[in-house]
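Support case: PMV complex. Customer-provided input:
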Amino acid sequence: MPRDTRITSATATAHPSLALAKYWGKEAGAPNLPATPSVAVTLGGLTTRTTATLATGNGGAAAPPGGDHVVLNGVTQEIHRFSEILAALRRELNLDDAVTISITSTNDFPTAAGLASSAAGFAAFTAAVLAARGHPVDLPTVSRLARIGSGSACRSAWGGFTRWDRGASAAVQIADEHWWPDLRVVVLPVATGTKATSSREAMNRTRDTSPYYRSWVDDAPGVAASVEAAIRHRDIEQLGEAARLSCMRMFATMLGAVPPILYWLPRSVEILHALQELRNQGVPAWETMDAGPQVKVVTLQEHVAAVVHRCGELTAAEPVVSAPGPGVSWSVEPPGAP
Ligand code: PMV
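Agent response - structure generated as follows:
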């Protein structure tokens, strides 16, 4: 290895952020500034692990020819998907073109689970690059920068329960992962495979063409406040009802877009009816869904078995049960390690 070569490396972990009050719609100005406030829980037990390697000069094996490099679950990615976050990190860290950034990231949860992995992915990505450079990994900075990769990633910086205000550049924590120990999210995978329309494209289309978009934006703060109050009071009824409302109103505005956006599959709808039956029988279990057909159920530990028993046969893969989990963590590899 030439003497002018310098390699530093760090590994970070992060977990998905599930919105209970949804972010849907972007404001103009900077990348991924939300038009609606969102309130979320960080999903413990589902982990993205990301290693960032910074190589200056001739970086040898750690610096593939052609510059920055991103590998997700063993597959090399088209680098342009990461150009905004890489540019933001380069600005933050004063990195010039002599430094190449290599990222290797894996999820320990099945891709088939259909969990939005971008939130965990960009939070871990950001923390790993900051740590590899020896920059302080403070969570407000991770949150602000991760947002540039994917809006919801700003919430994954923090553990427990988070809020991301309208127009805000970063999320804040409203309670940590120990606040509500028996809260559970049951992820019911309905389909495998990638989604037809990205959240970015769908949000822009909704804003530009749906006549209901303004009402969605005007209504969302009240629902988000109800979700946050329910978390503060650990009130599962209020949380479930408000989370369901936020989800349904988000999809209502999408259905008004041109052309309409419909992420749901027949199985998703079957599960929504099964959950209504469970609620009719007194089981506290409410759905929330994101930019895809998977259904996530908000419930309490003691009711997980009933949800899995009733809905498990409707899924395309094993249900995944999650509890509130921590925010990003990181460690720096010994100097010189590739
Ligand atoms: O951060 P993105 O671009 O993956 O968008 C997230 C959108 C929703 O998952 C539907 C809602 C949310 O607040 O996470």
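The longest helix spans residues 213-233.

Case will auto-close in a few days if no follow-up is received.
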